[in-house]
């Protein structure tokens, strides 16, 4: 845990240093947020704020994770082993484990989100901004399929499910593959929908990664716990610049990467049944969109919420942006605490 928290602190410092140059780069290239005309009027003032800030999270996490893996190589030499022992890091910390899968999820989904962001601010010749749904979902399913396949054919503990109060994980066989793909794709879109207010997606993601980091450490998956806390450090640094009023948005570069990676981490702990609890805000946001569409169709034009996702409903009934973000954040903390409790049963 000490090693994990140390990397989290380093991740925060690297990201904070990387923040101002990234903002300047985005401004220089006019990579600014596009606000939908049909969205809440309060959001119109955010037009042009630098987006694609997810790179502020992805870059330091990638650098630190690769560096941590290099330690495994160094530890194979006698001199390297003695140095690592002085640092309190043993070879057993890494043996039989790898962060390649969550790192792949972070980078792959991050680049996918970046493409969508870029096409939003640099529309194609036909005027279409961003990737269309029929373009997005096949790519999401392909990336999720690769991740699920690697986990499925890996160690048995990575393709099972943990059920509260049952000691042994349950191996569900080939059925795990489609479930894993759906979990990852669902989290990609849920976190992306949550990214609509300053600080909202960042705070709730930091809480969710902290919860799964604790769960991973308690399971003895130090490598995964370290990865989660490294993510938390970078996300907190991003929030330094994303706090209301935001100097930068994460865009799909960040939200898609955070969602896909969170789903991957949950699968690797086996505690993916707890995602609706630990990620309660993400589920509520995505659920509000589905309920809105279903209700609209069933009632021939009536609306269940004033606007979806859920945070827009609260904006339109008069809640301030800061109140919504902070209250959602508090709910996410309660969900994370309850989720960790269930994981210990």
Describe this structure in words.
This protein is mostly helical and 345 residues long. The chain has one domain (2-275). Helix content is 67%, strand content 0%. It is built from 13 helices and no strands. The chain has helices at 2-28, 55-74, 78-87, 100-121, 133-152, 176-194, 200-218, 222-242, 251-269, 275-278, 280-298, 310-316, 321-344. Helix 5 crosses helix 6 and helix 6 crosses helix 11. The two termini are 21 Å apart. 47% of the residues are buried. Residues 86-97 have low confidence and may be disordered.
Uncertain regions spanning at least 5 consecutive residues: 86-97
Quickly give the structural class: mainly alpha
| Tally of separate domains | 1
Radius of gyration: 20 Å
| SSE sequence, one letter per element | HHHHHHHHHHHHH
Oligomer: single chain
Please estimate the helix content.
Answer: 55-70%
Give the biggest beta sheet.
none
Overall average residue pLDDT: 87
Tell me the span between the first and last alpha carbons: 21 Å
Number of strands: 0
Q: In percent terms, what proportion of residues is strand?
A: under 5%
Number of helices: 13
Tell me the overall shape: globular
């Amino acid at each position: 845990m000490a090693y994990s928290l140390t990397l989290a602190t380093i991740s925060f410092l690297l990201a904070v240093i990387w923040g101002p140059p990234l903002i300047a780069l985005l401004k220089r290239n006019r990579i600014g947020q596009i606000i939908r005309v049909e969205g809440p009027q309060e959001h119109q003032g955010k037009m042009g704020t630098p987006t694609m800030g997810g790179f502020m999270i992805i870059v330091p996490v990638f650098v630190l994770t690769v560096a941590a893996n290099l330690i495994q190589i160094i530890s194979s030499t006698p001199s390297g082993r003695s140095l690592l022992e002085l640092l309190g890091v043993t070879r057993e910390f890494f043996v039989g484990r790898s962060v390649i899968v969550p790192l792949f999820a972070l980078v792959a989904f991050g680049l996918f989100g970046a493409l969508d962001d870029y096409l939003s601010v640099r529309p194609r010749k036909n005027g279409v901004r961003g990737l269309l749904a029929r373009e997005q979902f096949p790519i999401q399913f392909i990336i999720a399929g690769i991740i699920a396949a690697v986990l499925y054919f890996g160690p048995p503990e990575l393709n099972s499910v943990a059920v509260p109060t049952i000691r042994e994980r349950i191996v569900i066989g080939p059925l795990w593959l489609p479930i894993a793909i759906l979990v990852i794709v669902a989290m990609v879109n849920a976190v992306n929908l949550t990214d609509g207010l300053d600080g909202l997606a960042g705070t709730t993601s930091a809480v969710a990664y902290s919860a799964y980091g604790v769960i991973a450490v308690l399971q003895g998956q130090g490598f995964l716990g370290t990865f989660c806390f490294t993510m938390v450090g970078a996300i907190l640094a991003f929030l330094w610049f994303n706090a209301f009023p935001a100097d930068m948005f994460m865009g799909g570069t960040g939200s898609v990467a955070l969602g896909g990676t969170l789903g991957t981490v949950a699968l690797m702990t086996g505690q993916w049944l707890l995602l609706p609890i630990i990620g309660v805000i993400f589920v509520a946001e995505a659920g509000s969109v589905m309920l809105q569409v279903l209700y609209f169709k069933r009632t021939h034009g009536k609306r269940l919420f004033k606007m979806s996702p859920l945070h827009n409903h609260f904006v339109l009934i008069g809640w301030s942006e800061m109140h919504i973000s902070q209250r959602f954040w508090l709910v996410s903390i309660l969900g994370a605490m309850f989720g960790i409790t269930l994981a210990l049963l």
